[in-house]
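CO-FOLDING WORKSHEET

Operator: S.A.
Ligand of interest: pyridoxal-5'-phosphate
Run index: 429
Mode: holo prediction, single chain
Checklist:
[x] sequence pasted
[x] SMILES validated
[ ] output reviewed
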Amino acid sequence: MKKTSQILINKDIQQLKESATLAINLQAKALSRSGKDVVHLGFGQSPFPVPQSIQEALGKNAHQKDYLPTRGLPDLCSKIAAYHNQHFKYSVKEDFVLVGPGSKELIFQLLYLLEGPVFVPAPSWVSYGPQVNIRGKKIVPVQTKREQSYKIQASELKEACEKLSNEPQKILVLNNPTNPTGAVYTQEEIESLAKVCREYHVIVISDEIYSLVNFSDRSYFGIQQFYPEGTIVTSGISKAQAAGGYRLGFCILPETMIDVRSALSAMISETYSAVSSPIQYAAAAAYESNKDLDDFISLTTKIHGAAGNYLHKRFVNMGLNCPAPEGAFYLFPDFQNFKEKLKAIGIEEDFELSKYLLEKYLIAVLPGSDFYFSSKVLGVRVASVDYNGEAVLEEALKADLIDDSFVAANCTNLVKGCDRLANFLAELK
Ligand SMILES: Cc1ncc(COP(=O)(O)O)c(C=O)c1O
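OUTPUT RECEIVED:
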């Protein structure tokens, strides 16, 4: 074949690699296909079926073929606003809700159009950094502490703002509950962060994709409640409603951000135009008051809680450091206590550790450095959803208690993963 001349690619894009979570998923799946019994603690997809009411709404709306308004189906936007005002004591307006093909795309578009340095707590979700890189910028990770369950504290944010005091506007991406740690912020923490954001003119992109997956013993507090004028909420139906593949997310802007709304509407109209019509009608069913749906979210959240607590206890018993998860479906243990023993087998950084665990023990986890964490800390992200959600949900409907024994009996891959990890640690000399 005739050799083509070299193709020139935008340098900011050329440096990107495939998202770490998707890559580990492919590697683990390839191993499984080759007959290996992999325990997949790498990929954070809800294992549960999409609730019936949403599936039915999708079926009934298959004929919806017209392009919808750029900002989204008005009925969906109005339901999303009402749902958030009712559930989280927000004060948001339907005219400021914009719908996108997953909240990931909207976070990207917001990061693209907003000026200023972007703070993210370290560790934070893998995709914020590359999204900022596409815009030719770099994120500014703010190191958090294990003792604070890796939640960014107001004093840490203040210090970061002071260092960039010459910047007229800053951005903070705050994910609560948090991927990769399962942490949930307290009201006090959120209120203190809100004060710093107001003082230093920090626009918050509040990534609330897990807001309904809260199994702490506290109510959920979002920063919109305390800093409405500077907060952009992003969320969607991928996690609590288990419909990640529907690709439906949204952002909610404050009324003060009319210019941002115009800019974002323009970007949407020049890129994806509008989200698929049947999917938007289906999503409207996710934000209608419906006891079955509320029961589904409450029960599946209990299961996430039990799975997280089970893994947490096992990790701590093995000698790993790990804050207790309170939401989402992740944990962030570190192997600091085994540093010397790991060094003896040539493992000094987290990506060497996760490679070793996958190849030798068939356990897939993600290295903490993919989440902007120092690789020497030997932290890894564990997702607690490697089980058959449909079967487990059925058992949960019959069970009196969703506790450790429920997890041990029904989520056998989680048990297997812990057993393998315990063996690995026991075999270290
Ligand atoms: C922290 C976080 N934010 C955002 C997203 C994106 O969700 P979606 O694009 O499905 O709405 C995810 C999904 O994995 C996530 O974990």
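REVIEW:
Residues 44, 102-104, 125, 175, 179, 207, 209, 236, 238, 244, 249 surround pyridoxal-5'-phosphate (CB under 6 Å).
DSSP finds 16 helices and twelve strands in the chain.
[x] output reviewed
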